[in-house]
Amino acid sequence: MRRRAFLGALGTSPLWLGACARREETPLAHLYGRDWVHGAYELYAGTYAKVQSSSEDKARTAYAMLAQKGVTGLDALQSREVPFFIRVQQDETGFAVARDVPERLTFTSDMSQADRDAAQARWEKARETIQTDYEQIRRLDWALTTLLGQLQHVRGAIEDGTVEQYRLVRQLEAMSQGDKPPFDLPYQVSVQDYRGVLLLLLERLDDDGARLSRVESNIVTVGLTARATDAGSGSLAANLHKVLLAVVTDADATSPRAATYPADDDSRRKYGARGQQLYDGIRQSPAYVTWEKQESTRAFDQLGQLLTLVDAMTGLKTSALYQQVLDVWRGDADYLSYLKTVVKMLPGGSEVGKVADQAVELTEKARKVAGQVQRGIALVKSAADGGGVVQLAGDSGLLNAGSDFARSKLQKQLAFFKEPREIDEVKGLLSESSLWKSALPAL
To answer: Is the per-residue pLDDT at 16 higher than 80?
Structure first.
């Protein structure tokens, strides 16, 4: 039996009407006993492991592009004094860096000669660098669009994984009431053996869902940090290096669980007990009860529903969390409010979570001082003229001051660094990582 059909047999059931229910073909019918139990678990568990590894690999390529080329590109775009915006497109097929370089230089009657000279210098600079900027924008669009695609894929897998858990709970509940499995069990495989496989898979889906959520939250954080360099905030492009370093640090510290049947008794007992806890909790949850009522009116005739849903990303349009992410990546609110939204998504104890938490705290301090700086009150502890940054008094954060565009946004910027030396330290650490040394795709 093909894997898709097997997944359908495990993940769906007819209406559990005893003898009236349609019987599925027995999956892996050439196996029996413990070999069938192991094969059943590994065939199913491998699905989400592949989703995670595939998304991590593709996201990592996008991260490498941003680390090696993206920060430089964003720095250059900011220096042109031409406002630009980074947003997810309305059709949700990609990111786009939008900027408007005027064909003609225009003066207004209220401009002084100094204003006109400055406007002409900015216009000429923007026109001179159009081709270079086009290449920079093309790389940024590609990297951020790649991250959007992986976010959609991961979010679809998480949503579908929840439904798969509901299906497994439904089978377990039906068998607890005396119903038979949806297919004839192989030789030397008991109903109790099959029930054990379902409990292990229930735990596996929960663990994979947690890992996929970490992949998702990292993507969202990187996307927002890149976006915060645009005209809505004007934050330092180097902030992106700090987030990317945290992402690669977390990735190097963990690895996905192998999609193999638990080898030792202790692991099986631990995962099985966790599966039982999940079963008890899910079947009493309001969300499951609602789903069960809806599904009880339908006939389960489709096979391979898990893979079909993952591939199609069904339900994204109605996913509250996905719509929230789109708002973070497309909305016009204060970017600090978006950062606070992202922090709620991040797993506790992760390096990315720590960086985002520190950025919220530092930004709030910087906002209190930045307004006074813009009003001309001398609260600047030090300024690196060549580095284009301004360090606020009292360790209140490092803000972008490398252009008129950035200096006009001091009160809207996000602060990730306390002092200039941190920028070089972070870049140095990132340059030693595998992310920096990764080969970039030819675009």
So the answer is: no
Amino acid (1-letter code) at residue 201: L
310 contacts 202 by C-beta, under 8 angstroms: no
Q: Could you say which DSSP state residue 96 is in?
A: E
Centre a 10 Å sphere on the Cβ of residue 88 and count the other Cβ atoms it contains: 23
Tokens representing 150 are 């992986």
Going by the DSSP 8-state scheme, the letter that residue 67 receives in this structure is I
Angle at 284 between CA 267 and CA 348, to 5 degrees: 55
DSSP 2: -
Are 79 and 387 in contact by the 8 Å Cβ rule? The answer is: no
355 compared with 384, residue with greater pLDDT: 355
Nearest to 366 by CA among 415, 330, 298, 300: 415
Query: What digits encode the pLDDT tens for the residues 88-139?
Result: 999 999 999 887 655 566 677 788 887 777 767 766 766 666 667 888 899 9
| Whether the Cβ atoms of residue 417 and residue 430 lie closer than 8 Å to each other | no
Q: Where are the alpha helices (DSSP H) in 129-190?
A: 130-176
Quick check: 161 and 48 in contact, CB under 8 A? Answer: yes
Q: Per residue in 292-311, pLDDT tens?
A: 888 776 644 433 343 334 44
Tokens 């489709």: give the residue.
Answer: 302
Cα 140 from Cα 134, distance rounded (Å): 10
pTM of the model: 0.83
The rounded distance, in Å, linking the Cα atoms of 219 and 290 is 31
DSSP string, 199-234: HHHHHHHHHHHHHHHHHHHHHHHHHHHHHTTSTTT-
- Give dist(CA 48, CA 322) in Å, integer: 19
Q: Is 439 exposed, middle or buried (0-12, 13-18, 19+ CB in 10 A)?
A: exposed
pLDDT mean across residues, the chain = 82
Q: Which helix (H) or strand (E) holds 373?
A: helix 351-374
